[in-house]
Design a protein that fits this description.
The structure is a single chain. It is globular and about 65 Å long. It has one domain: Rossmann fold. Helix content is 23%, strand content 29%. The chain has 336 residues and is an alpha/beta fold. The mean pLDDT is 96. It is built from seven helices and 15 strands. Strands 3, 4, 5, 8, 9, 10, 11, 12 and 13 form a nine-stranded mixed beta sheet that branches. Strands 6-2-1-7-15-14 form a six-stranded mixed beta sheet, with helices on one face. The structure holds flavin-adenine dinucleotide. The site of flavin-adenine dinucleotide (FAD) has 40 residues, from helix 1, strand 8 and strand 13. Flavin-adenine dinucleotide (FAD) binds next to helix 1, strand 8 and strand 13. D-dopa binds at residues 221, 290, 318.
Length: 336
Amino acid sequence: MTEIVIIGAGIIGLSTAYSLTENGIDAGKITILAEHLPGDMSVNYTSPYAGAYFSLANEDENLKYSEFTYKNMDKLREKLGGKGSGIGTCKSTENIQQDFDSDYLEKRKFADDLEIGKSQVPGCDLAVLYKAFIFNSPLLIANLLRYLTKLGVNVKREKLNDVKEAFKAGTKTVFNCSGLGALKLGGVEDTSMIPTRGQVVVIRAPYINECYLAWNDTSTYIIKRPDSNLDEVILGGFYQKDVHDSNTYGYEIDDILQRTIKLYPKILSDNPNGNRIEDLQIIRVVAGIRPGRKGGVRIEKQELSDGKVIIHNYGAAGEGYLCSLGMANEAVSLIL
Ligand SMILES: Cc1cc2nc3c(=O)[nH]c(=O)nc-3n(C[C@H](O)[C@H](O)[C@H](O)COP(=O)(O)OP(=O)(O)OC[C@H]3O[C@@H](n4cnc5c(N)ncnc54)[C@H](O)[C@@H]3O)c2cc1C
């Protein structure tokens, strides 16, 4: 009997299943239903495309989710086997546009090794240094799914036309973690969703062992990818609202390379294969669509007339990994 159904096998759906089991819910009573599962690549499945990185420059209203995630990520890493889990840490420098405000520091004190200085990057005010989590997104979601199925969570590939189709025999609760799918899923059809495109260039760069980012009028970042056989480093990116286009563009590759090299010259200067752009080993270029939402994430309990409930948990935009455990914990708390 499937008492709890989770729609979605992205980082949010999988983290919700994890949080349920962490809160003592019997794994055998949980079923994940999803059109796309780890291993798939689709314009409608964001999670495999993420950098992914734990940013401290996230929206203030999401800080409670990111703080919870930061504090509980080591535990998840251990449960997934430590090295090879797809979760790592590294030194990070985030250059941000923000006048110094003691509140800013106070609210982010949960991060280890936190220091704040003046940014040297044009258009940025602060340089925020700390120990960041980094994620090998396709590997992490695959490992998380494997961990959950070992515990006894059921998984079924199914595309739903309406959220109510998720209620199977004996189902009392449905978690709607459909990401961008919330826009079209019958019974939800959330028109506040804003598809938000990003393109990244992935290079092989064993000589880069940190993250370096600038959030000014652009989103420019260099993210070390953990547990990657090819020593991948993600160079990005874009944050294009209302763009649902998974094509990649050569002029955007050039723009990303120009911006990241200007921000972090070591990309070329430390490359043992040569110091020209042509000497970079580009592994792939991809574009993904973030599940943005006007008004921010939706974590909400919807009571149906027959006593059943839907818990909505979607709209993570560009923060699905860094808010994953916190969003899941809040959604699960609505049924405990
Ligand atoms: C280029 C890029 C870089 C990013 N970098 C970062 C980063 O550094 N840090 C960070 O925290 N985040 C980052 N993100 C954002 C992050 O990837 C997303 O916030 C996150 O993946 C959203 O996860 P999700 O589970 O909500 O959605 P998804 O991963 O899209 O999962 C949705 C699930 O719902 C299923 N589904 C939807 N509709 C239906 C239906 N009708 N029937 C059945 N199943 C359905 C899908 O098949 C899928 O399994 C980045 C994103 C992009 C594109």
